[in-house]
């Protein structure tokens, strides 16, 4: 070996060592690049797309309801799909999470309400995913109607429902498996007839997606758990007994590791979905106690919804249904047969004949029509009805001449103030002002109950009803407030308004009437 070669040998060995080290560093760097970074798991349900458990994401930027996304070994599963038909907020959150919507294998709908379902069809079109929904909501989803099944009592006039393909209808207890992840469909009707909770299980983790059966995680007040739907007539899909059974079922199950509700934004501050058994049971117990009371009331007094379906509210006190927006009531007493209000033009005669036939009142004649105002809506059927029945008419003082001009010649008009003295039924007339022509209310004692029959003062809250109220009252706010002061003195067990809202229940309990009066005042607070 020459001196040159001897000197070169150590240099070559150093170069080899440096090369090996460089390769090692490069491989380590490549491993770091390729290795998935650990997900940061949020402890609360916030307003951004975030992991709440490994591979389980809250899509918190949808409004008003949340959606959730689950990564499985066999693709993505979306739970609910937001209010937007184009699903823009959902799609943006996929992008934020760097996940492809084309990997969605299934869309699990908790129920048909628009804020949970309207984006499903668009995501199905993009991804080819199957849509799963409860069998009770399947027909409405496929038809895109009735509107009440999508929007409940919420006023969203600029949003339309549309048909949604439902590939799999769930009756309950089905297990749907996606690789390493299993979803069990729990039939939990009551908020809607087809409400489903989904219990996800993977690697010992149990996650419950509740939809609106449990809307949020703070301790709710009455009607805020999602149970408001149990107070509504059947067209809205809610049912008090079903809801009660659903909450009892959830309580009987082992406490899930995470509870992911339909409206986490309803909580005043972001909540931790990891509930202890004590807190989970306490949350459910609020709803159970509320619904036990509601079911008991329905059993005792009837679910007397003023929803267009004729029914006897008390012995002899009948709801004949609606003509347009106005309700028609009839009171059968030993001394008289009285109809309250005369809406609907010529249709009123046919409605009265039909109801008389159904009730077996063949040959009976109306004694009188009792008006709650002289407005056109209340009197449009008066001419045809009086001509047909040859009955008397009880009118308010203001507007009496208007009513006289509508009635056939020779019609006997009675003044509303004289009604208590006539003695057909025990009543007190309450003269009102501030809306319409000659508004008046009648407070009756009947079948051991206090019944209040009113015209357009007051109204139960809804955005359209209050918008119209504000237009009608206009500058007469002071008069309207005086009417509310007078009505606040009443303590009705049943309230029969000329203009029922959302098929409201005629029965009132505890502070229901006080709340109605207060809400009408607040309509003009601004």
Structural class category: alpha/beta
CATH-defined architecture of the largest domain: 4-Layer Sandwich
Which residues form runs of ≥5 with pLDDT under 50?
1-12, 18-37
Averaged pLDDT, please?
92
CATH class of the largest domain: Alpha Beta
Largest sheet features: 7 strands, mixed
Count of discrete domains: 2
Name the shape in a single word: elongated
Number of helices: 16
Which percent bin holds the helix content?
25-40%
| Proportion of strand residues | 15-25%
- The CATH topology of the largest domain corresponds to Metallo-beta-lactamase, Chain A
CA radius of gyration: 32 Å
Would you count the extended β strands for me? 23
- Per CATH, the superfamily of the largest domain is Ribonuclease Z/Hydroxyacylglutathione hydrolase-like
Major beta sheet, strand line-up: 1-2-3-4-5-6-7
Q: What topology does this entry show?
A:
Blueprint: H1 3-34, E1 50-53, E2 56-59, E3 67-72, E4 75-79, H2 88-96, E5 104-108, H3 114-117, H4 120-127, E6 130-134, H5 138-143, H6 147-151, E7 168-170, E8 175-178, E9 181-187, E10 196-202, E11 205-211, H7 240-252, E12 258-261, H8 277-301, E13 311-314, E14 317-323, E15 326-332, E16 337-340, H9 347-359, E17 368-370, H10 376-379, H11 382-389, E18 392-395, H12 400-406, E19 413-415, H13 419-422, E20 427-431, E21 440-446, E22 449-454, H14 463-473, H15 477-487, E23 494-497, H16 512-522
Parallel strand pairs: 4-5, 5-6, 6-7, 11-12, 16-17, 17-18, 18-19, 22-23
Antiparallel strand pairs: 1-2, 2-3, 3-4, 8-9, 9-10, 10-11, 13-14, 14-15, 15-16, 20-21, 21-22
Helix pairs in contact: 7-8
């Amino acid at each position: 070996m020459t001196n040159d070669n001897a000197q070169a040998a150590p240099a070559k060995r150093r170069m080899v060592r440096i090369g090996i080290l460089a390769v090692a560093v490069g491989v380590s760097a490549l491993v770091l690049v390729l290795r998935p970074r650990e997900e940061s798991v949020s402890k609360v349900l916030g307003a951004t797309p975030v992991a709440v458990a490994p591979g389980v994401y809250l899509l918190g930027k949808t409004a008003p309801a949340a959606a959730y996304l689950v990564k499985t070994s066999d693709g993505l599963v979306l739970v609910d799909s937001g209010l937007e038909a184009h699903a823009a907020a959902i799609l943006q959150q996929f992008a934020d999470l760097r996940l492809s919507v084309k990997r969605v294998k299934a869309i699990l709908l908790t129920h048909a309400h628009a804020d949970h379902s309207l984006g499903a069809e668009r995501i199905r079109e993009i991804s080819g995913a199957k849509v799963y929904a409860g069998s009770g909501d399947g027909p409405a989803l496929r038809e895109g109607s009735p509107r009440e099944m999508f929007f409940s009592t919420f006023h969203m006039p600029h949003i339309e429902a549309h048909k949604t393909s439902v590939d799999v209808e769930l009756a309950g207890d089905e297990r749907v498996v996606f690789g390493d992840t299993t979803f069990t469909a729990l039939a939990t009707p009551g908020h809607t007839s087809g409400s489903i909770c989904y219990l996800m299980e993977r690697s010992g983790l149990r996650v419950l997606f509740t939809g609106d059966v449990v809307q949020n995680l703070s301790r709710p007040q009455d009607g805020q758990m999602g149970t408001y739907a149990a107070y509504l007539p059947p067209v809205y899909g809610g049912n008090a007994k079903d809801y009660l059974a659903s909450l009892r079922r959830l309580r009987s199950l082992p406490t899930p590791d995470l509870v992911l509700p339909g409206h986490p934004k309803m909580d005043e501050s972001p909540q931790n979905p990891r509930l202890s058994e004590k807190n989970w049971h306490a949350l459910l117990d609020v709803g159970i106690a509320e619904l036990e009371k509601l079911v008991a009331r329905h059993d005792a007094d009837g679910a007397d919804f003023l929803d267009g379906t004729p029914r006897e509210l008390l012995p002899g006190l009948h709801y004949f249904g609606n003509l347009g927006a106005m309700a028609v009531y009839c009171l059968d007493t030993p001394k008289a047969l009285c109809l309250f209000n005369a809406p609907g033009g010529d249709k009123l005669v046919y409605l009265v004949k039909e109801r008389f036939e159904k009730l077996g009142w063949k040959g009976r004649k109306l004694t009188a029509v009792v008006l709650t105002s002289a407005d056109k809506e209340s009197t449009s059927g008066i001419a045809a009805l009086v001509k047909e029945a040859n009955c008397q008419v009880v009118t308010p003082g203001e507007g009496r001449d208007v009513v006289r001009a509508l009635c056939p010649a020779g019609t006997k008009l009675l003044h509303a103030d004289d009604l208590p003295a006539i003695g057909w039924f025990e009543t007190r007339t309450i003269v009102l002002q501030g809306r319409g022509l000659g508004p008046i209310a009648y407070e009756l004692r009947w079948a051991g109950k206090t019944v209040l029959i009113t015209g357009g003062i007051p109204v139960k809250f809804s955005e359209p009803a209050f918008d119209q109220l504000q237009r009608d009252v206009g500058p007469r706010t002071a008069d309207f407030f005086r009417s509310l002061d007078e009505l606040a003195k009443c303590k009705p067990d049943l309230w029969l308004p000329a203009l029922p809202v959302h098929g409201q229940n005629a029965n009132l309990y505890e502070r229901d009437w006080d709340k109605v009066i207060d809400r009408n005042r607040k309509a003009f607070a601004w």
